[in-house]
Design goal:
about 40% strand; 2 domains; 4-stranded antiparallel sheet; about 280 residues; 22 strands; 6-stranded mixed sheet; 4 helices; globular
């Protein structure tokens, strides 16, 4: 039986050939291992220096030799341990797609020059955005059985840490900027503090989305007025299947400490990520 959870996020070297496909059995790979609960994990900043990817090459095929081409960007979160090995890898807003499975294999095979704290190697919390491009090929095993597997048609492009976060923030800012002008609204920054959420409201799954096992991130833009109330909610990244409406329903119940400018409340438009995920109940 599946149930739903919701997360709201407020946004204001060496060369190695690798040829695994996205559907082959999972190896004993780093993404299946975790950092010990006792191990300290650092965030980049101050005396903590970020990890550096050791470049490698993946085997790719000619696009003309396969079918159903797919291309997309997958966001991952991970920990790079003190040996430069990725651990605790997960997809941000997973939907169980072929591109996500391939991205997990790509980052799981990565190796890094580890991050450091005051010159000593440490485990660092990290973020990756992977551009995956590939298609399906038909393979036949020794018994004559055929199956379609996903293979890369271009080298994956990876962006890490601040670069990935800045790119995502820029995309969200661009989406908000594309909305029709709204006179009287302020922008966070340059003396305008962001609004602060005072409560948490869980977004419910729609029956259609639950039945079809739809997961992902719905991005909602909303004005927080001078009373701290949400107004004029709009969908800027849709999930469909009734989840957009459920996201707006939850966001409209939020209460905020309003944005401030020189001690005076001012209205601002912000973006809220509503992350819908399904999980299996364990009896």
């Amino acid at each position: 039986m599946t149930s739903g959870i919701f997360i709201a996020v407020f946004l204001v070297g060496a060369s190695v050939a690798v040829g695994q496909d996205a559907s082959s059995p999972a190896p004993s790979s780093p993404q299946t291992e975790t950092i010990s609960p006792a191990a300290k994990v650092y965030d980049v900043g101050a005396d903590v220096v970020s990890p550096v990817l050791v470049p490698m090459q993946w085997q790719v095929i000619v696009p003309d030799t396969c079918k159903e081409p797919k291309e997309g960007l997958v966001s991952l979160v991970l920990v790079v341990d003190a040996d430069g090995v990725p651990r605790d890898i997960s997809v941000a807003g997973p939907q169980g797609t072929t591109l996500e499975k391939m991205a997990l294999r790509i980052v799981g095979a990565d190796r890094f020059k580890p991050g450091t704290f005051k010159g000593e190697p440490v485990a660092v919390r990290w973020m990756s955005e992977v551009t995956v491009k590939g298609c399906f090929v038909t393979k036949t095993d020794d018994a004559g059985n055929t199956s379609d597997v996903f293979r890369l048609t271009a080298q994956p492009v990876q962006e890490f840490g601040a670069t990935a976060r800045q790119k995502k923030s820029a995309q969200i800012a661009s989406a908000i900027a594309a909305l029709p002008p709204e006179p009287g609204l302020y922008k966070v920054g340059n003396g305008v503090s962001p609004p602060v959420a005072l409560n948490h409201v869980e977004a419910k799954f729609s029956e259609e989305a639950r039945y079809k096992h739809i997961e992902g991130v719905c991005l909602i833009s909303v004005i927080v007025d001078t009373q701290g109330k949400p107004q004029n909610a709009r969908v800027i990244r849709s999930l469909g299947y009734g989840l957009d409406e459920k996201a707006i329903e939850a966001v409209n119940k939020y209460k905020f400490k309003p944005a401030m400018k020189e001690g005076v409340p001012v209205p601002v438009r912000i973006a809220i990520e509503v992350n819908f995920r399904l999980y299996e109940k364990v009896n």
